[in-house]
Amino acid sequence: MPELPSTPPSPEDHPADHYAGCPCCDRSRISRRWFLLGIPALAGLLSTRLAAGSGDPLTHVVRRRETLSGIASTYGVTVQELAAANRIANPNRLQIGQRLVIPQPAPAFIEYTVRRGETLSAIAARHGTTVAELVRYNGLQRPDRISVGQVLRIPSSGGPAHPQLPSPIRAQVEGPSIARGRWEWIVIHHSGTTLGSARGMDRYHRQERRMANGLAYHFVIGNGSGMTDGEIHVGERWTRQLEGGHLASYQLNQVSIGICLVGDFERRAPNARQMEALEMLVRSLLRVAHLRSAAVTTHRLIHPRHTLCPGRHFPTEAFLATISR
Ligand SMILES: [Zn+2]
């Protein structure tokens, strides 16, 4: 849901168009103590732990004065990789004592054992790659002769093909040509209401919240009450590439694509069709907006003190894991 700022912004600093507000936001407010750590990390204060079991992930406990970038450089990973592995929306906010998982570089390939009756082209198709790629990767002299039990290396970037958006929606989503760097985040919200539609939200944001560009989100996904279940509405803010109005921060609205799923996920989880639509939409957006999966976040992850949106039953962790594959 759009966020109501705690203090009314001055029109100069924050044009009214950036705020939608929602009666459900107050109900979703929580208080949580966050420590703001902006001072560069001091060498020697690092607290590291290499897990005893080889299967356990490498972790790091945040100490006072450490920054995410300092920790990232210590382990030779990027800030974005570290943020993604730990679902950190705002890299400037770390909690003292917070345990961070240090991501390990993904292997460049997976190993696959050929089974009876399989052909190279079938294996390539199943893993979203090509025969030429497999030939090159495995140095195969005779691609027509692979044997049962033979181990092939398959580039890990290839995976099972993901479901695609229906073509009319895909054309709308992928229509705008977008410069690299135009968008930085994809933020997931719920409406906080059991029923709703893009049209209703647009009217509310335009008339009640006085937002000149109407619908505060770029996309709305229906739940069968007010809109068809799993239906994706592509808003004008997307087709015209306008900033969002779904976050309290003016700066974040400039670079954050907003997706709202109709439903109150404090009460119950989104349904399978909504989640499928969300996955297809997000994958498509990542591609067209030149973003990595670390850019996908939720309203609560980006503003933990202000909101519970998209609700406790939204499967944040599972969804972020899915989208990173
Ligand atoms: Zn929200």
Question: Can you offer a commentary on this structure?
Answer:
With 325 residues, the chain is of the alpha/beta class. It is built from twelve helices and ten strands. It has three domains: 175 residues, Lysozyme-like, CATH 3.40.80; 55 residues, LysM domain (Membrane-bound Lytic Murein Transglycosylase D, Chain A, Roll), CATH 3.10.350.10; 47 residues, LysM domain (Membrane-bound Lytic Murein Transglycosylase D, Chain A). 34% of the residues are buried. About 16% of the residues have low confidence. The chain binds zinc ion (ZN). Zinc ion (ZN) binds next to loops.
| Unreliable residue runs | 5-55
CATH architecture of the largest domain: 3-Layer(aba) Sandwich
Could you please say which CATH topology of the largest domain applies here? Lysozyme-like
Tell me the structural class: alpha/beta
- Report the helical percentage: 25-40%
Q: Care to count the β-strands?
A: 10
CATH superfamily of the largest domain: Peptidoglycan recognition protein-like
* Shape type: globular
Number of domains: 3
Largest sheet, strands/sense/barrel: 5 strands, mixed
Number of helices: 12
Determine and state the CATH class of the largest domain. Answer: Alpha Beta
What letter string, H or E per element, gives the SSE order? Answer: HEEHHEEHHEHEHEEHHEHEHH
Portion in beta strands: 5-15%
Question: Using only CA atoms, what is the Rg?
Answer: 22 Å
Output mean pLDDT: 80
Short overview:
The protein is of the alpha/beta class and 325 residues long. It has twelve helices and ten strands.
